[in-house]
Structure prediction request, 655 residues.
Amino acid sequence: MKYFVILLILIGSVTVLSQNADGLWVPQSPEKLLETSQTVFVGIVTSITSVEVEYQSSITQDGTVKETVGPETMILEEYTINIEEFLKNPQESNTMKLLQATVGGVPSGPAKISGFDIGDRVLFYVPEKGTHTDFETQYSPESFKIPKQCDAKSVLEQPKISGANDFKMMQDGIPLNDNFTANKPIKFVYNKDMGTLEGKSFDVDISISKIIDKNNKQIVIQENIHTESKPCEWISTASWEFVPTAGKYSMFMHTTEGNETGGETLNRIFTVMANISESEFEKKLVSDVIPPPLKQMKLGISIDEIQCKESLTLVTKYDGSPACVKEQTIPRLIERGWINYANSEKTFLDKTVNEWESLSFEQVSTLYEKHDEFLQKTNGKHFYNMLGEFLVKDKMEKLLVNKDIQNMNDDFVVFAGMQLDSLPPRISYYAGVNSTDGKTYLLSGGSSSNKAHANNAKEIIIYDTTIKISIEELVTKEPFVTILPEDGNNARVEPYSILLDYDEKNTVEFYNTLDIPIIIESNDFENPASTKKWKTSLIYPNQTIAVTFNSTGFHVWDAKYLPNNSEFWEIMGSGDVGLFTTQSNNLEYTEKLEIARNIIHNSEIPVVGLGIGSDRGLTISLAPGITDVLPDAKEYYMERVKQLIPFNIPIVIED
Prediction:
């Protein structure tokens, strides 16, 4: 018997890659299959015959035939089935002959779907003639084997997972992706379609860590969960939970099935907020009655964001707690020692911090025009630089109180760092503080016009630079990159830089959290003739792909997506991967510089600038203010840099 069919191949349509075929195929849901099938039945395959089928392909774009290919032939299996039970639209015959399933939509013609063996019990979906299949008397590719002990009607009603496996994070039974509440259990549920009704097991390795800072995590849960699906059920479920404290967390999960390689990897980053009752939260946000300062602190409001009633001014008492007082009483309270707040009696251009912060943008701009030229002549600094120092120092003093850091000196100096050439400029500031507990801290903050903040007090840790550093201490522990949606100024990839010991691990996994497909591609802009070019296949939403590098070196990559109605892929995030070994002298000089910059960027060294060049090598700019508390900072950090970098390159440390 010979079959003939004409295939229309559409250009520009959206398709999903099936793991079970050589073609492109979008599987239908069980509900849709039952609705669109002419008949559904369970039967036993009693014989298999090879038949030749003929087809002709027409490639169309926008409804117009662009090209016709064929006729061509292919060999398919034809199954004779003894029907056990009809589940929809019973037929008169107890036997039926059906062709092996194919999927179309590829220029080379239809592609075969893996078939069945004699004796297999199969649930067949048979569509209307000429719909959803390439040939007449052909079953749908979603048909599947069903074990003898399984009731066909029950299986037909079983839920299945369409697309990616189902993962949920929940609190109080409500699915959430972020902003969980502290001290209440978070439940993680992973539902996996096992692809078989025979009953099958899998393992889940999970790790949940609390993010301390950019370079440090504290593992709170690390365990292996073994689970299995019951016979006659598609889905197996793994679940776990933990009770978090407030902070930022990362969760890593990887699945394995027996001795098989691969598996699915998921990575999630989420925030846990302080536990505030609903009534208190509403009061904090919308109440017209401003609570007392101490109650605001208990509600989780930071000390520098506490509000006072009109006509009152926020001050810090001798014990570090906040208070709201009348401004005219501040000098007397300072004199009595009730207020321990240095900036309460300080002004800039005869205005206090509170007065500056209450001005409008236009009022500050007017004062800039009035005083800037005079300040440059008399102080050598611009108006906005001096205003920023004044306001940021106020925030830094409050930050010290809030973190219970006691400055061993009466005062500290604020230094300007990077500055954006706008008007008003955005300026970063740094200050070094030696604490009474023997620790040294680097404070950082910034300003724009009359708005200022101090966001970090980082302890400066001094290491023994005579000890040899092992390569294991430098590399990335989990080479897993998450591609994130754009969220304000947040990075679109995390982490940006990966360092690997090539002898131990040379594979990086990329996880797509977007709702569109992406690719990861090497960036060879500076070297178009590079032989290291590479590109992944499409990474669909909530899918992971692994990239294996076959040599040491430095690789810059871009995450790209294809906008609607465009032929050109656009960059929506970038990163880099450095691979080296203890014997990395074979690296090119430029690659050594890139990897060295990567290492220092990920280290604890307080840098505000990193540059590389063929003449000077690696140039490091230390944060202003560090030499104020560590007089030999340049000498120490030069030795620390040499300790961290596993090969010889020129190094310059600037003031």
User: Anything to note?
Assistant: DSSP finds eleven helices and 34 strands in the chain. The chain has a mean pLDDT of 80.
